[in-house]
Amino acid sequence: MAERRFDIGDRVTVRDATSMFHTRTQVFTRGRTGVVVEMRPEWVIPEDEAWDRMETGRVEPFYVVQFDQKDLWPDYTGFDGDTLQTEVCERWLEPAGKEQ
Q1: In 3D, which of 44, 41, 58 has the Cα closest to residue 4?
Q2: Residues near 99 by Cβ (< 8 Å), separated by ≥ 6?
Q3: For a disulfide at 78, which of 44, 82, 91, 94, Cβ 3.0-4.6 Å?
């Protein structure tokens, strides 16, 4: 098991990168900053899972990251405390504030 880069409570930014293949990293979270609220087990990354590489695919830790909805959508008209949580594999995350 690889050492995890992030802990619960860490502020992280989702890489603002494109992908030619399947990924579960939603476009609206890319370039946005949130907080790690849960750790998930290591698993085959979605890009390899999509090609049925379950036995040979790259394995990484996954995290649940929570975002304020106003940070995701500038025109959001809901409550200030509304949040969204999504699962992101480690390769898509950087420490908040780090140059991309």
Answers
A1: 41
A2: none
A3: 82
Class of domain 11-22+31-92: mainly beta
**What is the C-alpha separation between 57 and 6, in angstroms, rounded?**
22
Of the candidates 66, 72, 70, the residue with the CA atom closest to the CA atom of residue 88? 66
Query: Residue 73 burial (CB < 10 Å; 0-12/13-18/19+)?
Result: middle
Which tokens belong to 30?
């890319």
- Cβ atoms 66, 34 nearer than 8 A: yes
Give domain limits for the chain. 11-22+31-92
The pTM of this model reads 0.82
Q: How is residue 69 written in tokens?
A: 């909805």
Provide the residue type at 3 as one letter. E
pLDDT in tens, 19-36: 665 567 888 999 999 999
